[in-house]
Amino acid sequence: MTALITRTRTRAVETLSLDSTGTRNALSAALVGELAAALADCGTDPDVRAVVLTHTGGTFCAGADLRDPPAPDAFVGLLRAIVELPKPVVARITGHVRAGGLGLVAACDLAASSAAATFAFTEVRIGVAPAVISLPVIPRTDPRALARYYLTGERFGPAEAVGLGLLTTAAEDVDEVLAPVLDGLRRSGPQALAETKRLLTARVLETFDRDAADLTALSARLFSSGQAREGMTAFLERRDAAWVV
Q1: Section 196-212 average pLDDT
Q2: Where are the alpha helices (DSSP H) in 13-132?
């Protein structure tokens, strides 16, 4: 079976690349499982100082794989694994990010994109809500700015993503802007990094503890609804959903 996550290591930084270009790196059950396993390996490896989460192809992540979606609990577990990992996780984005992919970005401690990246919370366009991804997204973003993109599903660019709080930084050359970040992580003590990350993620983890069960149930209910079936069918058939006026 072809691996959906490729791994490389450079000077104590492990790079995990979503590598399912045929599905635009959509979050299938298999991809979520492989990524969770790779993160667990990194978390217990004393030679890994930090993790970079990136992608192959022109899409970082297209959101849930509508033909083989992960169980909501599995996706919650993946997002929590990123937040709880005792190593900093840095998102490196050079392409498009949609729906559930934005949950991955928000779960990361730092996130940088190239100027070519685009973003959209497209859940409302297929008749569901950005439920599970709200666990890391809402605590880390500006609520007034987020409301526009949550409610409309509009596409937005790196500058808006920085202003929203989804991205740490954006630049023409994402690797150039990430170089001093990764150098700083390599110069930091492992124990200090773990404890500092714990301080920074405490509020996010409180949201998981309080809301994960309710948001998982909401996601399952909406995905089984008639409107969602129509929305997903329309998406796969590349047509407007029946409610579009």
Answers
A1: 98
A2: 29-44, 72-84, 100-107
Residue 179 lies in a domain: no
Q: Measure the CA–CA gap between 177 and 129, rounded to whole angstroms.
A: 33
At residue 96 the predicted structure's pLDDT band, cuts being 50, 70 and 90, is very high
**How large is the average pLDDT for residues 21-39?**
97
pLDDT above 90: residue 1: no
pTM over 0.90? The answer is: yes
CA dihedral 150, 207, 87, 34 (to 10 degrees): -70
CATH of the domain at 167: 3.90.226.10
Give the pairing type, strands 110-114 and 169-171: parallel
Q: Which domain holds residue 163?
A: 1-172+190-245
Task: Compute the distance between CA of residue 82 and CA of residue 202 in angstroms, rounded to an integer.
Answer: 13
What are phi and psi for residue 96, nearest 5 degrees? -85, 145
Which tens digit of pLDDT belongs to each residue from 57-87?
999 999 999 889 898 899 999 999 999 999 9
The torsion defined by the Cα of 77, 21, 59 and 35, in degrees rounded to 10, comes to: 20
For 27, which DSSP code? B
Count how many Cα atoms sit within 13 Å of the Cα of residue 139 in the half-sphere of its side chain.
22
